[in-house]
What does this fold into?
Amino acid sequence: MLVQQIINGLTLGSVYALIALGYTMVYGIIQLINFAHGEIYMIGAYAGIISLGLLTLLGVPPSLLPVSILVSFLAAGVVSAAYGVTVERLAYRPLRQAPRLSPLISAVGVSIFLQNFVMLSQGAGDLVFPLTFPSEGISFLDARITTLQIFILAVSVLLMAALTLFINRTRMGTAMRATSQDRVMAGLVGINVDRVIAVTFAIGSLLAAVAGVLVGVYYGLVNFSIGYVAGLKAFTAAVLGGIGSVPGAMLGGVLLGLLEALGAAYISSEYKDAFAFLVLIAVLIFRPQGLMGSADASGEKV
Amino acid sequence: MYRSLSRAVASIAFLLPALWLSGCGGKDETVITVGVAGPMTGDQSKMGQDFRNGVDLAVEEWNSRGGVLGKKIRVDVNDDQHDPKQAVALASKMVNKGVAGVIGHFNSSCSIPASDIYAKAGIPMITPASTNPKLTEKGHPTVFRVCGRDDQQGKVAADFVANVLKSKRVAVLHDKTEYGQGLADEFRKSLGTRAGVAAYEAVIQGDKDFKAVLTKVKRADPDLLYFGGVYPEAGLLVRQARELGIAAPLFSGDGTIDTKFIEIAGPAAEGTYLTFSPDPEKVPTAKAFLDAYRRKFGPHGPYSIYAYDAANILLSAIRDAGTIDGRAVSKKIHDASFRGALGEIAFDLKGDVKTAPYVVWITRGGKFEEIGSKPAH
It folds into this structure.
C-alpha cells in the first residue's frame, strides 16, 4: 500500500509543482504573490477541452491520442500564456511602483473576475474532459501505475528540466536571473525589464496550462472553480519549497503531494485538504524562508 | 472630468438599493407565488434545473386552466448552490416574499435546516428528492417529501447485496453529507451481520482525487463498494477504483442516477448498481407528463417527475383549502390522496409517502436500466 500511495502522491505532487513554478517565478522577479495563477491553470484546462471540441468538428476524434494531447497542450499553453501576459499588463504593471499590497489586492480581484468570467461564459456545471487514456498499467509490488500516471510524471519532469536549462543556459534566462537579483540595476545595464517580466508570466502560465490539461485528463472533470483549491495548494507548495526558488517549488510540490496521499491513507481521508494548509502554517511559523529559500531576502530568486 | 464621473457612479450606486427595495418590497396580491429551490448552478445544477422544469411545466398547465383561486401562479426560482448556509438564507428570503409553498430542496443537508424556517412561518415545503430520514422525523406538520427515505433505500440495497450479489466483504464510503453519510449508515445497519464491512471511509464532496482512500480500500480486498453520495464523486470514485485495479462493483443510491455519472466514469460505469424508484417510462400514469416534458425541455431527469407531482400536490391542496394559508394547505396535503404522474400518492403523519417503491437499477451499455430485485444477466 505504501508504494501505491507514493505513486498517487508523486502524480499529484508533480502537478502541484508545475503550478507552483508559476507562483515562485513571478515572486522571484516582482515579489508578487499572483493569486490569479490558479485561474490561469483552470483556463488552460478549459482551453484544452475547447480545442478538443474544435478538433472533433474538424473530423479528428479525441481518441487519436498523440494528436489530441499535443493540440490540447498547445491550445492551452497559448491561451493561458496570453491570459497571463494580459493580466500582468493590465492589472500588475500599472501598479509596479505602488505599495506591495496594491498588486496583491489587484491579483485577488483578477482571480475573482476570471472565475466568474469563465462561469458565465462557459457555464457553471462540470465539463467532462473528452480524452481517455488506455486504462492499462504496470503492476508491481502490490501497486499499479497507469500509463496516464507515467505520462504525467514524464511530462512534468521534462518540463522542469527544460525550465532549469532555460533559466541557466539562455540569454533570456540570464536576464531573468539578473532582474530577480536587482530590477533597477538590470534595467540600467540594458535589460528590457518589462519584457523579462512578461516572459516570466508567459512561462509560468504555460506550465500551469499544461498542469490544467493533465489534471483534466487525469480526473476527467473540469469546472470553473478548480483553480481555487489547486492555486492555494500550489501556493503552499511554493512556500514550502521557499518562495522565489525554482528547485524549491519543484521539491515543495512533490513533497506536498506525498504528504497529502500519505496523510489521507494513514491518518484520515476526511482531512486530506487540511494537511496542505497545516503544512503552510507550520512552514510560516518555523521556517518562513521555506526548505530551499535563502534566509537572506535579497538573494537570487530564480 | 474624473470628478463628475465619480459623482455619477456614486449616485447610481446610491440609487441601486432603492430600485432593489421597490423591486422586492410589498407582496403582490394578484398572483400566487410558488418557490422552487435547489442547486441551480455548480456541479449539481442539473438536478436543480430538473426541479425547475418539472415545476414550470405543472404551473404552466395550471395557468392555462386559469390558475388557482382565480389568480395566476408565478414560479420563484432559488439557487441554494447545495450549500446549507445559502439554503437557510434563501428560505428566509422566500418567507419574506410570501411564497405559498416551496418545492425543494434537493440535498438533505439543505432541506433539513431550511425546513425549520418554512415550518416556523407555516409554509408548506415538499421536497422531490431529499431522502434523509431526519427531515420528517422533526415532526413539522408542514414538511413533506414525495420521494422515499434512506432507511427504506438502504434496506433495499442491503437485501440485494446480501441475497442476490451474496457479497461477503463490503467497503462502505460516503461523502460526509447528511444524505451521503445517512444513506451509507442506513445501508450498513440493514446489512447487519449478513456481510462483513471491510472498510468504512469518508471522502470530501467536491474533491477530485480519491486515489489515497481507494488504495486503502483496495488493501481491505472488498467484493463490493457501497457509496453514499452524489454523481460527480461517484463517477470519479468508480473510475479511479478501476485505475487502481479494484474490480469490485460499485453500489450507490439515488444521488448517482444521472447521465453525468456515466459521462464522468466512462467505461468504468458499466455494472454499477444503484437504488432508485421504478422507471417512469414503465409507469402508465406518467406518459402524459413525459410527452409534455420531452416536447418542452427534452429528456426528463431522474427528479423532474417528482418536482412536477410535488407542484401539483401543492396547487391542488391550495385549491381544496380555498386559501394560501400554509397550515390549512398542509392539512389538506396530509388528508388527501393525489393521483399524480407517479401514480397514487398519500402521506403519513410524518409527511413521508405511504409507499416508497425502491428498486435496483444497473448501468449497462452506457444506460441506466431497472432490474428490480433479480440478479443482472
